[in-house]
Design a protein that fits this description.
Elements lengths: L4 H34 L9 H6 L5 H9 L4 H6 L4 H5 L1 H9 L8
Length: 104
Amino acid sequence: MCWNPISMKFTGLVCIAFVIVLVSALAPTKAVLEEKAECIPTELLSCLPAIQTGSQPTADCCGKLKEQESCLCGYIRNPLFSQYVTSENAHKTLASCGIPYPTC
């Protein structure tokens, strides 16, 4: 069998292309998993008084809401949490924190 430098270069290019495609394919998956991992409803317990009574939200509440802003549509769609996110006081809480109400 003869050693062919052209086939070696081609094989190297194929390997590099495969690695690039593999890394590109995994990057969005990782981002989606990270986004899902941030959606932890219990971290919003500090917002419960403001959502239930309409009182001013705490700085901790606003910080947690901003961290989980991308999760709000999921909470709205979830029957366990939708009542808390769609209420009039939830709208007020979001507005007080400077977070626009999501359009899902």
